[in-house]
Amino acid sequence: MTTIRDVARISGYSVSTVSRVLNHKNYVSDEVRKNIQKVIAELDYVPNDVARDLSRGRTMNIGVVVPNIDHPYYTDIVRGIMAAAFAAGYNVLMLPSKYDAVVEHGYLDQLRRHAFDGLIFTSHTMPVADMVPYKQYGEVVVCHDPGQIDISAAFTERGPSYRAAFRWVQRRHYRRVGLVLPRDIDISATSSATITAYKDVFGVEPEPSLIRTGVMSYDDGYAAAEYYGTNNLAPDFIFANGDDIAAGVLQYYRDGHLTPPTVMGQENQLSGQLLGIPTIDHHFRDVGAAALRLAIGAAEGQFPVHSDFIPR
Amino acid sequence: MTTIRDVARISGYSVSTVSRVLNHKNYVSDEVRKNIQKVIAELDYVPNDVARDLSRGRTMNIGVVVPNIDHPYYTDIVRGIMAAAFAAGYNVLMLPSKYDAVVEHGYLDQLRRHAFDGLIFTSHTMPVADMVPYKQYGEVVVCHDPGQIDISAAFTERGPSYRAAFRWVQRRHYRRVGLVLPRDIDISATSSATITAYKDVFGVEPEPSLIRTGVMSYDDGYAAAEYYGTNNLAPDFIFANGDDIAAGVLQYYRDGHLTPPTVMGQENQLSGQLLGIPTIDHHFRDVGAAALRLAIGAAEGQFPVHSDFIPR
DNA sequence: TTGTACGCGTTATCAA
DNA sequence: TTGATAACGCGTACAA
Question: HTH lacI-type domain: which residues (chains A, B) (predicted)?
């Protein structure tokens, strides 16, 4: 491997002068610069990024914790992160977590070991408060509203669009509203925001028997509908946490030749468009871009992003 | 920042002994190990990954070049890569390319600068032959059949499933088969494999006016169908490069209240399931897993992966 | 079993 | 404007 010392020796100048040429710094005469560049070209020399990172004390890498890449929430948010990272000259490290708190802690430790400069949690199981001590080692960013906890965050403002959606439901006089939610209400910001918006609009708690949690996919949506069906719960409206999930819900009724309730999805996915159901666009790409800017220290604090209810 | 030297100084042992404890090596007495581990715990010391990488000469990072993350081909293949990387203790660096050959070359240069140990091209625009010289700097892996070129590769064997699909078409006596392909035939392995399989089954070249390239998305599929429609090309069957794309094709006819041709998709996506169209499952997760094993040097050579035609 | 000292390749400080 | 040299933090022959 050819090093900066080889270039120095062969060109007849010192490593510091070569380093200055490499980094386009001043205090190098045009002639010397030209000579050194010629040797660099001849030797086909390139600097070693790891040595450079060690010397500079930063990696230009940002870690992104992702429970499962197949969910549209994550692909959208990761797209936004990647685009912003590329523009800023950063590389993105994908860190799969499967919602495992132990694995999540492992990534915080990697941050501490300087494996990357910043860490974005697109979602997580561990308590946000446990992340705070790690801020001293690099930027830590979450992608939901962290409430009172002092941590950088970028997230969609679900309240307004959820309330708009439920007012739409209310105007149509649906009586039995099924809520098909991703994870338990105490750990999922999405789920709790849904419940809160429901209460804001309807003035009452949602019917507990009509709430299904742990629903993340088309198949889960199908199973949730099956649960409603076999237990004779007969919702006349179902609010799902994604268009694909809503598609699974509808398929259950279709397979059983039953009249389906009205359904609403989220994420503005192709399946929702095909089925002609109302949805909510959370603009997750913008959330991702904002999260990255926080992670590289180009911005600070909390970044709420506007979301849109799309009636159909 | 506390370093290994601090641990050595405070514990009263040398850095090499501390290093041995850190790396669970032999030749350390239990008592010394315990003393040192106590100091490590007290100081809350963790080793610096960058320094470790520099010293060891490798990063445990694998770069993955991805033109656009939203396409199902890439999300599936990346999922396979991530799962295998996680299992092997590697981190995955996502490298967006937008099919730009200059950007692709930039990532090969990053490999040369030791930013990662291996590089996987899920797809690319630059010629494969241009990658060969970079093999000296680390593993370079492509995700299509590289033909005679000596480079590691993991890819779906498209031939058998494409031929099975076209035989299905043939048995149904379709006469005017539209081919809706991703990129130009000379740069896309997918496109050329489609043409070859068509010729194998039908014994003739596909009708040039019925071939559309550059079709990557639902919207592109819609536009391709529009092209057929406005030019009175009247295909009676359309072979699309994805179920979502096939959905776009069908939507054009639906919007115009026209009788659609029969369509076939690929990727076994939700949209294809909803529309009840035949498709091809390429098992891209397995391809990704194989690609990673090649990239970390756990395997060598070419890894063809079997794909399945799914009639419906 | 433990310690010394050097190498990894670069950047940054300070002197010349 | 250029150069010598000390960091950066860790791993590892080799010596003891």
Answer: 2-56
Q: Compute the half-sphere exposure of residue B263: CA atoms within 13 Å on the CB side of its CA.
A: 30
B244 touches chain A (CB under 8 A): yes
Cα separation, B162 vs B195, in Å, equals: 10
For A43-101, how does the pLDDT look when each residue is reduced to its tens digit (9 = 90+)?
Answer: 999 999 999 999 989 999 999 999 987 777 888 999 999 999 999 999 999 999 999 99
- B20/C7 CA-to-C1' distance in Å: 18
Q: Are residues A246 and A206 in the same domain?
A: yes
The DSSP string of A58-88 is --SEEEEEES-TTSHHHHHHHHHHHHHHHHH
Picking from A3, A23, A50 by the largest number of B CB atoms within 10 A of its own CB, the best residue to mutate is A50
Chain B residue numbers touching A95 (CB-CB < 8 A): 91
Residues B216 and B236 in one domain: yes
Q: How many angstroms separate the CA of A56 from the C1' of C10?
A: 8
pLDDT for B44-95, tens place per residue?
999 999 999 999 899 999 999 999 877 778 889 999 999 999 999 999 999 9
Residue A8 shares a structural domain with residue A124: no
Domain count, chain B: 3
Which tens digits make up the pLDDT trace of A256-273? 999 999 999 999 998 999
Convert the pLDDT of each residue in A216-258 to its tens digit: 999 999 999 999 999 999 999 999 999 999 999 999 999 999 9
Q: Which residues of B touch A271 (CB under 8 A)?
A: 270-271, 274
Query: Nearest CA of chain B to the CA of A94: how many Å?
Result: 5
Specify the 3-state DSSP secondary structure of B143.
coil
**What is the domain extent for residue B218?**
158-282
Same domain, B64 and B150: yes
The answer to the question of residue B52 being in a domain is no
User: In this predicted model, what pLDDT tens digit does every residue of B107-157 receive, in sequence order?
Assistant: 999 999 999 999 999 999 999 999 999 999 999 999 999 999 999 999 999
Encode burial over B235-247: b for 16+ CB neighbours within 10 A, e otherwise: bebbbbbbbbbbb
Residue B252 and residue B218 in one domain? yes
Asked if the structure places residue A53 within a domain, the reply is no
Q: Are B247 and A274 inside 8 Å of each other by CB?
A: yes
For A:173-192, CB contacts with B below 8 A are: none
Q: Shortest CB distance from B70 goes to which of A61, A70, A79?
A: A79
pTM: 0.89
**Same domain flag for A251 and A164:** yes
